[in-house]
Design brief:
2 copies of one chain form a homodimer. Chain A is built from 9 helices and 12 strands. By secondary structure, the first copy, chain A, is an alpha/beta fold. Chain A folds into 2 domains: 169 residues, MoaB/Mog-like domain (Molybdenum Cofactor Biosythetic Enzyme, Chain A, 3-Layer(aba) Sandwich); 87 residues, 2-Layer Sandwich (Alpha-Beta Plaits). In chain A, the strands form 3 sheets. A 6-stranded mixed sheet of chain A has the order 2-1-3-8-7-6, sandwiched between helices. A 4-stranded antiparallel sheet of chain A has the order 10-11-9-12, covered by helices on one side. In chain A, strands 4-5 form a two-stranded antiparallel sheet. In chain A, helix 3 crosses helix 4 and helix 8 packs antiparallel against helix 9. The first copy, chain A, starts with 5 loop residues before the first strand and ends with a strand. At the A-B interface, helix 1, helix 2, strand 2, helix 8 and strand 10 of A face helix 1, helix 2, strand 2, helix 8 and strand 10 of B.
């Protein structure tokens, strides 16, 4: 597959590591970033520890065009994501007047004042700008450094999604590569994945801009169900669709030759 | 929290990065590893590329006592996890007679023979031993190197879970630390997370063996719902329970003082 600007997602939170929470945020972001034309290269989940966050953000800097962190922006003692980002950037945290105004407004509308724990949410890495939180109290933050756009979003899914759509998407669209991405696929029944393997390989060679992947979901033998997904990138939507269909055609031929059938189609 | 042997989970698969599949395997494994007494330090999702897999397995070696990879063991062209593990170990892949016998048996029971793509599933890193797959065709692999136990499990959840329980758990129990881990919590209504923050901090100071975390799930203001979870480790189950309850007691007191109430309890 051609080189596309890379994106890293860094998910912060012990609850993810101990399996209390399933990381749906990473999948949601991965899908949006892919359709915007970025190549998601890593999702890294780290504990709520400054050094661990700094280590992974530091690895991503200069390597990924976009680095998105989720979680750890709230008012409690272990919300330390922006400390970790600041450490990776070699900068300090600074009270941002615009962010403080966002926090102040959020609480004053509800008849509450500022407390130490609430003011903490307006401490951003030096040089970062706040991202408005349309749903909750904690602003996000975005900063450009060493060729990477580093954006920090909340961990609560409704807040993360709203901030991504309203505040971050416009910034990403400016740096997203031109062109189009499509993803589609078929579900194949009656053929073991291992028998389909040579056809999938052939399909993947249709173009370097096409990525073909099989997902076995039934049993390998007995009642095999294999979903074959194709992701194609091209300069126009029509071209991307055409390449995806060309690749799927190779798989269809295999299904036919092997006596299987197609139970579902998901058009490009 | 006290130092416990660390575990890393390395999830292999483009479908996870592009958000087509939600990484439920990592949560499932994270929960089991935590209850076995390991501290899950990273979950890293990587593409189906040998170099990327090798990079992350290489980082984990010597740092994590246990490294578990999921996915990429199947018969298709992009199932390259064991190549990545071998590269990280500085070893080659080798046809393992025991693994080949597992694959041969799986297919012959179903009246099928071996093909090149099927034999590929028995190519393990030099020195690794196969892990039986009670559900599917591809064996797993386990190898001890540089102080780390590296285990590779399939990506299909039913296969991953069965292999973990039957083949890997006994090996992990041998190296797991003695002692017990409990996790429990309460759901608090009527108090914003930012007001509860000082009490949560106080609870987290009850013992270095206790970890307290709040998860806001309602809105910060209006109808706040905050789940507070406590994870406690100790040498016996009774001690772990006692420490968890002591920490929760601090939070309960805060809820009372702030005029909130507890809507759910999940006993230790």
């Amino acid at each position: 597959m051609e080189e596309h600007p890379r994106a890293w997602i860094i998910s912060v939170g012990n609850e993810l590591l101990i399996g209390r929470t399933i990381n749906t945020n990473a999948a949601w972001l991965g899908s949006r970033l892919t359709l915007l034309g970025f190549e998601v290269e890593r999702v890294v989940t780290v504990p709520d520890r400054v050094e661990d966050i700094a280590e992974e953000v530091g690895r991503a800097l200069g390597r990924a065009r976009v680095v998105i962190t989720t979680g750890g922006l709230g008012p409690t003692y272990d919300d330390v994501t922006l400390q970790g980002v600041a450490m990776a950037l070699g900068r300090g945290l600074k009270l941002h007047p615009g962010a403080l105004e966002m926090v102040r407004r959020f609480y004053s509308k509800r008849g509450l004042g500022l407390t130490e724990d609430r003011v903490k949410m307006a401490m951003l890495p030096d040089g970062a700008e706040p991202l408005e939180n349309p749903v909750g109290a904690a602003p996000g933050a975005v900063v450009e450094a060493r060729g990477s756009l580093v954006a920090s979003l909340p961990g609560v899914p409704s807040e993360m999604e709203a901030m991504f759509e309203k505040a971050l998407r416009p910034l990403l669209e400016e740096i997203a590569p031109p062109g189009a991405v499509v993803e589609c696929g078929i579900a194949v029944v009656g053929v073991p994945e291992s028998s389909l393997a040579p056809y999938i390989k052939e399909a993947s060679r249709v173009s370097p801009r096409v990525y073909v992947k099989s997902h076995p979901q039934g049993s390998e033998i007995g009642k095999p169900l294999v979903r074959v997904r194709v992701l194609a990138r091209a300069s126009t939507l029509e071209e991307a669709r055409a390449e995806a269909l060309k690749a799927l055609e190779k798989v269809r031929r295999g299904v036919e030759e092997l006596g299987g059938s197609i139970s579902e189609e998901d058009s490009c």
